[in-house]
């Protein structure tokens, strides 16, 4: 809001490129810095060397600013930095050297944090599309119109006609409140980016050993002796994690092995680089396990005492001798052998993956195969080992934990009656009342639409859907539509809904993509730096994020907007209370309220502390998190453990499970060499005590956490998920027991459809039709997350004849997700001004394409009888292999060769516009979670 | 904390000001660590309010996409025998006592000789184009402001921030993602580099081993 004065020169509206208003901003800041110093300008007249030296010796006062420690709002590494504020204006950033994860470091995105707030392109006030024109409206008008329309839609079609697309950039408190809001609204049609980011990891890992999260930590990689990075480009996606990886490489001589279809930036730092055909990860991993077993390198103790179903794995792995693996993956036998030996010789080793492993039709199999490798090598539950899943957004782990998903309530409780009763209990509302908000009990327990396919709920006939009405309203809340594959279909859905609301700090592609005349509202939200709250980074560390400045312009915090919606929908009072009382600091009316005080945030933390028992988000109180921030300097970088001070013994971020307010948090999951009270635990006994084949699912005698009163496996403790008093946890800890039992990791997850044991399956658009017969995809599914999902009927063998080139996508270091924020930051766009396609010189030359040429990329996705296509510049590079092209996915604002700049409200065109990769990414969705298959598609290219 | 983690000398750790000999401030770019994340470039813009088109530091990649790919962050290296200082016809470029090469923008005529002389392409010319007017030269100040009263408005307007006068190191090195860009007194920087080389060890996989005795 203080920035208004600077912007008042109107330069922004008139300047198409870099606005002239930068200089006024500079003036403002320099004025602020000099203010109050009492240094006369005359003193600086006629400067020279002598003058300069004299000046330096003058007694000058170092300018002082308010300092606010905060957490970066980009990727999930969770870096800290300090924001410097003067008179309510964010004037500078300082490194936070004591922060245990990043030690002061930032990448380009983090270094540009300030510009997210001060950017000229910030959405200043609510707007609505009227007669094809954007018109400024007041918050009051916006909210009353939106709510009236929502209520009309609800009355006519029922609660399931609304889709809420939540955000991984929301704080834990907002994410939690948003899920609660959907429950109070009466629909499970709520989802967020985790669906298209790591949903297959969450489902995969949870089905192997209980929790679907990164098991170790970024810092713990310093303990590794081998580091297998597969389907992840750390240098680009999680730059600060490289600090720990390079330290392991330099100090431990850790072997860094990068497995990727593309010679990525990270590959340049590897000891071994293995080029793999995209989507063949299971075959590659099984090839490694095949050699490990053949040579007797497996960890027999781990396999016999702590796992179930090894024989099923062995049976499947037997198919993957090195020759077969070479045929499927393209990895030469010699390289496979070298990697297997390296991993066996250098333990503990960690496996790191991201979207290269997850975004496949068999993503849930791929992630489980990585787990299988780590179990076979005995790398689980040890420092330096584990599955280090690098998640995408700053709070994607938290938003996942807090259930902004269509298939679960907060805490992975699912949607069963028991889950609803637990949360009704926590919220202090009547279960019957909650039920009455839904269409019926069946819809209350039925998984909703996903981010990946919600648009089918708009476009398909209701007869084909898993609900009897279409979706008529969509709320995009901190979410980019250009992240979803088949963007032409997304576009059509955005055109067809009655009401489209986009809540974001910037004008996003969602708002401008559809060709429509009205019915679109854009509401200015605060950035992550303008709201208080907690965020959970990739390795489950929960960190307190300070607000740096109040929301600028007319922006409001997500929570304020949400509570006003609740108020206008008539359930605010029930919404802001729980079993322990009402939230503190909530004003009587939210109308016109910009932000809620810190005490409200503290109340919400208290509420999730109360309910999130399954994953032990119970001991991270507001007070503890704030205290940790203050005492960041006492945490050891390698162990993340505090040495001395009031936080002595605590783990940084109190990573879950942190069972009680005395528990230090769990740095490394499934560790049995330390007591439960210090963060030890076995694998989760989640599936009962006996498998369907009669084998035990409890850990063997002798393998329990140190100090356990039961020296072996044991089932879940009674009521541990629903006891709100905390007694179960305390008694368990006193006896050295993990509340969730001590079970076995499963190689055979019998509950997973078609693939109880992970299987290699050719991508739907396979470049190797000869392999499709032997390794086919799944059977079609009629109702999967309320949409029909096709597999075999699409996997025709002749795609490759017309579309011979593999299409893959990925990140650029300067941007994130749909890039709507970062492309509105000049500092970042200046470094990366243009969308491009990476093409190998051979492929380029064969098509008569030169570096810098415009290229059409066409995909098998049908758009009104012709292939959907994008027009981008060619970047000719040997990074990619000659059989593939690679697209960064952050771009938007250009659709099929045509700029959409004219569709933005005047003056809000981002600095960076480009074709969205997802216009051409192919159909294909994971069998378990609906993850989109964007890493392995097909396309053809031609010179434009 | 493990010893190897101290890669940037702390300002509290007794920096150059405690020594008898004058400091000589230097950058060092660890090419085995630079990952081209662009943190230094953006941090510089953020800290110094750099106008568009100016890059006081930039990251250059060599052999992109091929084995041996290497990234190097290139700020002004503040050479001890600085060619730019030698060629400047109006003596606008000069060494501070701590070795930082400064340009006096009041004196500079924007002739561009320094650009010919500089091995690193450090001098920048605001509002320049290949055939346009060059204006006055701008370059990395080592976050030490310029020949003006520290923290004055004039200093900020002409040169940017003055972290050195605040007892802080340049912003680019302070935020470097992998601590590849190291800044500080030459002696301290040398210590950091020595520690790293020692940790990297000798034998297989050691840094530089494959070329050292060729």
Describe this structure in words.
The complex is a heterodimer of chains A (944) and B (214). Chain A has 944 residues and is an alpha/beta fold. Chain A is built from 34 helices and 32 strands. In chain A, strand 15, helix 25 and strand 16 form a beta-alpha-beta unit. In chain A, helix 7 crosses helix 26. Chain B has one domain: Alpha-Beta Plaits, CATH 3.30.70.20. Chain B is built from seven helices and six strands; from the N terminus they run E-H-E-E-H-E-E-H-H-H-E-H-H. In chain B, the strands form three sheets. In chain B, strands 1-6 form a two-stranded antiparallel sheet. Chain B has a two-stranded antiparallel ribbon with strand order 2-3. Chain B has a two-stranded antiparallel ribbon with strand order 4-5. Chain B is globular. At the A-B interface, helix 3, helix 4, strand 3, helix 5 and helix 11 of A face helix 1, helix 4, helix 5 and helix 6 of B.
Strand-pairing-aware structural class of chain B = alpha+beta
Physical arrangement of strands within the biggest beta sheet of chain B: 1-6
Query: How many runs of DSSP E, i.e. beta strands of chain A?
Result: 32
Mean pLDDT of chain A: 91
Overall average residue pLDDT of chain B: 82
Q: How many helices of chain A?
A: 34
